Amino acid sequence: QSQLVESGGGLVQPGGSLRLSCAASGFTLDTYAVAWFRQAPGKEREGVSCISSSGISTNYADAVKGRFTISRNNANSTAYLQINTLKFEDTAVYYCATDRRRAACGSAWSETWNFGIWGRGTQVTVSS
């Protein structure tokens, strides 16, 4: 069964950092783009970042540019999201997603319908 598993979330103070991981199980990630989304309570799921299958191309939402860094290690079928300078508004469940039809992120990378394989999410809570 193809699935993604996120890890690395937690409770952190404003200004802190976290590194989220997204591991593939049952398949290899190396030929597919990977995106990170987040969903805060009462809000829609939003695209945060996307990385192409090769890792050469990356995209970021304006709200996280300069603070978040997406990366991947195709040798172990894992993608990462480094989150720095955390803010209260970063509190959300973070999901990773991929799709077997997609090696590049494309212009609509932040739309949930672009991705057919999702993880269950990891909670990030920013609180003082």
Notable characteristics:
11 strands, seven-stranded mixed beta sheet, 128 residues, mainly beta, globular
Describe the structure.
The structure is a single chain. The chain has strands at residues 3-7, 10-12, 18-25, 34-39, 46-51, 58-60, 68-73, 78-83, 92-98, 117-118, 122-126. Strand 5 (46-51) and strand 6 (58-60) form a beta hairpin. With 128 residues, it is an all-beta fold. Helix content is 0%, strand content 45%. Strands 2, 4, 5, 6, 9, 10 and 11 form a 7-stranded mixed β-sheet that branches. The chain has a 4-stranded antiparallel β-sheet with strand order 1-3-8-7, with no helix packed on it. The protein is built from no helices and 11 strands.
The percentage helix is: under 10%
Beta content comes to 35-45%
Any idea what the radius of gyration is?
A: 13 Å
| Helix-strand pattern | EEEEEEEEEEE
Please, what is the average pLDDT? 96
**What is the makeup of the main sheet?**
7 strands, mixed
* Count of alpha/pi helices: 0
- Gap from first CA to last CA: 40 Å
- Unreliable parts: none
Q: What's the count of strands?
A: 11
The gross shape turns out to be globular
Structural class: mainly beta
